[in-house]
Protein backbone atom coordinates (compact mmCIF):
# COMPACT_ATOMS: atom_id res chain seq x y z
CA UNK A 1 0.00 0.00 0.00
CA UNK A 2 2.95 2.36 0.64
CA UNK A 3 4.04 2.16 -3.01
CA UNK A 4 0.50 2.93 -4.09
CA UNK A 5 0.31 5.96 -1.74
CA UNK A 6 3.69 7.18 -2.98
CA UNK A 7 2.46 6.85 -6.58
CA UNK A 8 -0.75 8.77 -5.72
CA UNK A 9 1.22 11.57 -4.05
CA UNK A 10 3.41 11.80 -7.16
CA UNK A 11 0.31 11.91 -9.37
CA UNK A 12 -1.23 14.61 -7.16
CA UNK A 13 1.92 16.73 -7.52
CA UNK A 14 1.94 16.19 -11.29
CA UNK A 15 -1.81 16.99 -11.41
CA UNK A 16 -1.26 20.38 -9.78
CA UNK A 17 1.59 21.06 -12.20
CA UNK A 18 -0.71 20.18 -15.11
CA UNK A 19 1.38 17.22 -16.26
CA UNK A 20 -1.04 14.31 -15.84
CA UNK A 21 -2.70 12.36 -18.62
CA UNK A 22 -6.40 11.58 -18.65
CA UNK A 23 -5.69 8.00 -17.53
CA UNK A 24 -3.62 9.24 -14.59
CA UNK A 25 -6.38 11.65 -13.61
CA UNK A 26 -8.85 8.77 -13.72
CA UNK A 27 -6.53 6.85 -11.33
CA UNK A 28 -6.68 9.84 -8.96
CA UNK A 29 -10.49 9.98 -9.21
CA UNK A 30 -10.73 6.26 -8.46
CA UNK A 31 -8.32 6.51 -5.52
CA UNK A 32 -10.15 9.43 -3.90
CA UNK A 33 -13.51 7.67 -4.38
CA UNK A 34 -12.52 5.37 -1.47
CA UNK A 35 -13.88 5.89 2.01
CA UNK A 36 -12.14 8.78 3.84
CA UNK A 37 -10.95 6.44 6.62
CA UNK A 38 -8.71 4.59 4.14
CA UNK A 39 -7.00 7.77 2.91
CA UNK A 40 -3.85 9.13 4.57
CA UNK A 41 -4.49 12.27 6.64
CA UNK A 42 -2.46 14.56 4.35
CA UNK A 43 -4.57 13.55 1.32
CA UNK A 44 -8.02 13.76 2.95
CA UNK A 45 -8.43 17.51 2.24
CA UNK A 46 -8.10 16.78 -1.50
CA UNK A 47 -10.81 14.10 -1.55
CA UNK A 48 -13.80 16.37 -2.18
CA UNK A 49 -12.01 18.27 -4.95
CA UNK A 50 -11.21 15.07 -6.85
CA UNK A 51 -14.75 13.74 -6.32
CA UNK A 52 -16.11 16.97 -7.79
CA UNK A 53 -13.73 16.81 -10.75
CA UNK A 54 -14.77 13.20 -11.39
CA UNK A 55 -18.43 14.26 -11.38
CA UNK A 56 -17.71 17.08 -13.83
CA UNK A 57 -15.85 14.69 -16.11
CA UNK A 58 -18.75 12.24 -15.96
CA UNK A 59 -21.24 14.95 -16.91
CA UNK A 60 -18.99 16.23 -19.71
CA UNK A 61 -18.67 12.73 -21.17
CA UNK A 62 -22.45 12.29 -21.23
CA UNK A 63 -23.34 15.60 -22.89
CA UNK A 64 -24.66 14.90 -26.38
CA UNK A 65 -22.53 16.32 -29.17
CA UNK A 66 -24.25 18.72 -31.57
CA UNK A 67 -25.07 17.31 -34.98
CA UNK A 68 -22.98 18.48 -37.88
CA UNK A 69 -24.50 21.46 -39.65
CA UNK A 70 -26.07 20.80 -42.98
CA UNK A 71 -24.88 22.96 -45.84
CA UNK A 72 -27.20 25.76 -46.85
CA UNK A 73 -29.44 24.88 -49.74
CA UNK A 74 -29.64 27.18 -52.73
CA UNK A 75 -33.03 28.51 -51.58
CA UNK A 76 -31.61 29.41 -48.16
CA UNK A 77 -28.67 31.16 -49.81
CA UNK A 78 -31.05 33.20 -51.97
CA UNK A 79 -32.98 34.24 -48.86
CA UNK A 80 -29.78 35.39 -47.18
CA UNK A 81 -28.71 37.30 -50.28
CA UNK A 82 -32.11 38.99 -50.56
CA UNK A 83 -32.08 39.85 -46.84
CA UNK A 84 -28.58 41.32 -47.15
CA UNK A 85 -29.60 43.36 -50.21
CA UNK A 86 -32.67 44.72 -48.40
CA UNK A 87 -30.53 45.65 -45.39
CA UNK A 88 -28.06 47.50 -47.62
CA UNK A 89 -30.88 49.37 -49.37
CA UNK A 90 -32.48 50.36 -46.06
CA UNK A 91 -29.16 51.55 -44.68
CA UNK A 92 -28.50 53.54 -47.86
CA UNK A 93 -31.95 55.15 -47.74
CA UNK A 94 -31.54 56.08 -44.09
CA UNK A 95 -28.12 57.58 -44.80
CA UNK A 96 -29.51 59.59 -47.71
CA UNK A 97 -32.32 61.00 -45.57
CA UNK A 98 -29.88 61.82 -42.79
CA UNK A 99 -27.52 63.62 -45.16
CA UNK A 100 -30.39 65.56 -46.77
CA UNK A 101 -31.62 66.63 -43.33
CA UNK A 102 -28.09 67.66 -42.34
CA UNK A 103 -27.77 69.73 -45.52
CA UNK A 104 -31.12 71.42 -44.85
CA UNK A 105 -29.99 72.37 -41.35
CA UNK A 106 -26.72 73.75 -42.75
CA UNK A 107 -28.68 75.96 -45.16
CA UNK A 108 -30.49 77.54 -42.19
CA UNK A 109 -27.40 79.44 -41.04
CA UNK A 110 -29.26 82.72 -41.06
CA UNK A 111 -31.87 82.57 -38.34
CA UNK A 112 -33.41 85.56 -36.61
CA UNK A 113 -36.51 86.23 -34.59
CA UNK A 114 -37.86 89.52 -35.87
CA UNK A 115 -40.89 90.82 -33.98
CA UNK A 116 -41.55 87.33 -32.60
CA UNK A 117 -41.39 85.45 -35.90
CA UNK A 118 -38.60 83.09 -36.96
CA UNK A 119 -36.93 84.17 -40.18
CA UNK A 120 -34.32 82.23 -42.12
CA UNK A 121 -34.27 84.35 -45.26
CA UNK A 122 -30.69 85.59 -45.60
CA UNK A 123 -31.56 88.96 -47.08
CA UNK A 124 -34.23 89.74 -44.45
CA UNK A 125 -31.89 88.77 -41.59
CA UNK A 126 -29.00 90.83 -42.96
CA UNK A 127 -31.24 93.83 -43.68
CA UNK A 128 -32.66 93.80 -40.15
CA UNK A 129 -29.16 93.49 -38.68
CA UNK A 130 -28.00 96.45 -40.79
CA UNK A 131 -30.96 98.56 -39.60
CA UNK A 132 -30.18 97.73 -35.97
CA UNK A 133 -26.49 98.58 -36.33
CA UNK A 134 -27.32 101.87 -38.09
CA UNK A 135 -29.75 102.79 -35.32
CA UNK A 136 -27.16 102.03 -32.66
CA UNK A 137 -24.44 104.00 -34.42
CA UNK A 138 -26.64 107.08 -34.79
CA UNK A 139 -27.55 107.12 -31.09
CA UNK A 140 -24.04 106.51 -29.82
CA UNK A 141 -24.83 102.85 -29.20
CA UNK A 142 -21.83 102.26 -26.98
CA UNK A 143 -23.31 104.43 -24.26
CA UNK A 144 -26.69 102.73 -24.56
CA UNK A 145 -25.19 99.24 -24.28
CA UNK A 146 -22.99 100.31 -21.38
CA UNK A 147 -25.97 101.76 -19.52
CA UNK A 148 -28.02 98.63 -20.11
CA UNK A 149 -25.23 96.39 -18.81
CA UNK A 150 -24.76 98.60 -15.72
CA UNK A 151 -28.46 98.54 -14.97
CA UNK A 152 -28.54 94.75 -15.30
CA UNK A 153 -25.48 93.89 -13.22
CA UNK A 154 -24.71 96.77 -10.89
CA UNK A 155 -28.10 97.47 -9.34
CA UNK A 156 -28.60 94.08 -7.79
Topology record:
Elements: H1 2-17, H2 22-32, H3 47-61, H4 74-107, E1 112-114, E2 117-119, H5 122-138, H6 141-153
Antiparallel strand pairs: 1-2
Helix pairs in contact: 1-2, 2-3
What keywords describe this structure?
68% helix; 156 residues; 2 strands
Note the run of SSEs as H and E.
HHHHEEHH
Determine the structural class based on helices, strands and strand pairing: mainly alpha
Indicate the percent of residues in helices.
Answer: 55-70%
How many DSSP-defined strands? 2
Taking the sheet with the most strands, its summary is:
2 strands, antiparallel
Helical run tally: 6
Q: Rg to the nearest angstrom?
A: 42 Å
Distance separating the two termini: 99 Å
Notes on the protein architecture:
The chain has 156 residues and is mainly alpha-helical. The chain has a domain at 2-61. Helix content is 68%, strand content 4%. It is built from six helices and two strands. The termini are far apart. The mean pLDDT is 77.
Write a brief structural summary.
With 156 residues, the protein is mainly alpha-helical.
Amino acid sequence: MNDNILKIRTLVDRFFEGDTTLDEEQQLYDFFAQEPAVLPDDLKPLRQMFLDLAAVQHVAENVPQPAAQKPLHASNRRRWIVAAAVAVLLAGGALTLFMRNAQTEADDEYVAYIYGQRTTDRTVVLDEMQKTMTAMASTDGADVVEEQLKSMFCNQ
